[in-house]
Amino acid sequence: MSRRRIYLMRHGAVSYFEDGRPVRPETVPLTVAGRDQAHAAAAMLRGIELDRVLTSGLPRAEETARIVAPDVEPESWPDLRELESGRLEEIPEDELERTFLHAFKDVVPEEARFLGGETIGSLFDRVLGALDRLLADERWDTTLAVLHGGVNRAILSRALTGGRTFLGNLEQAPACVNVLDVADDWIVRAVNVTPYDLAHLGGRTTTMEELWQQFRSI
Q1: Burial code of 27-51, b = ≥16 C-beta within 10 A, e = fewer?
Q2: Does residue 20 lie in a domain region?
Q3: How many degrees, rounded to 5, is the angle at CA 151 between CA 149 and CA 152?
Q4: In this structure, are residues 146 and 65 in contact, taking their beta carbons and an 8 Å threshold?
Q5: In-domain check, residue 38
Q6: Which of these, 6, 9, 93, 114, is most buried using a 10 Å CB contact count?
C-alpha cells in the first residue's frame, strides 16, 4: 500500500480587531508574530518535496503558504475557506460568551452555527467535497494545505472518524502543522505541531477563548 501525505497547516497569527473595531476576516494579513510562526514552519518543512500547495485563497492563508513553500505557486480553493460567522450584533448579549466559547466544544452538531453564521453541516459539505476532489487526483504524492482552524478540524475529524463527526476539541494553533497519510485508509501521524513552541509553553487558552477576550476588550 502506497500512502500519500498531506501536511495540513493553519495560517499564522492575525488580528481580527484594529483600533478597537472588528476587521473583516476575509481581508486580514498576518501579524509580525504570524510571519515569524510561518518562517518557523518553513524551517521545519525545509527539504520536503511538495507536489502541490493548496490554500483557501484568503490573504492570511496565501501569505503563510508563500513563506512556507516559496518555490511552489499556491492554488486557491475557495471551498476550503474558513467558517463564515454571522453578525455579532445580532446575537443576544447574554448569549455572546457561550457562542464564542462553545463554537468548538466537544462533538459539534451539524446544525450548529459558527458565531451565528454558517453551519457545521455546510462546512462539511464544501470541505469534504474539495477533499474528495483532491484525493481523486492521482498526480501528486505530497501536498501542503494551508487552511483554517474550523476547516482543519473538519478534515482531521474525517480522517479520525471516517464520517461527518465534527471533533471540536482538536485545537489548531496559529501556523500549526498536522501530518496525515492517506490511501484506502487514513493515518493521523501528528496534530497541532507548533514549530515555534513544540512544548506549547505559550499558554493554555484556545483560539476562541483568546478571540472572546479580544472582543470583550472592544
Answers
A1: ebebeeebbebbbbbbebbeeeebe
A2: yes
A3: 65
A4: yes
A5: yes
A6: 9
| Cell numbers at 201, concatenated | 509553553
SS3 96: helix
- Beta pairing class for 52-55 and 186-193: unpaired
Q: Sign of the CA dihedral 158, 109, 79, 69?
A: negative
Residue 183: inside a domain: yes
CATH number at residue 58: 3.40.50.1240
The count of structural domains within the chain is 1
Domain coverage including residue 62: 4-82+121-196
pTM above 0.90, yes or no: yes
Q: Confirm whether 216 is domain-assigned.
A: no
pLDDT at 97 over 90: yes
pLDDT, tens only, 133-161: 999 999 999 999 999 999 999 999 999 99
Average pLDDT over residues 125-133: 98
What is the DSSP track for 97-124?
Answer: HHHHHTTT-SEEPTT-BGGGSSBHHHHH
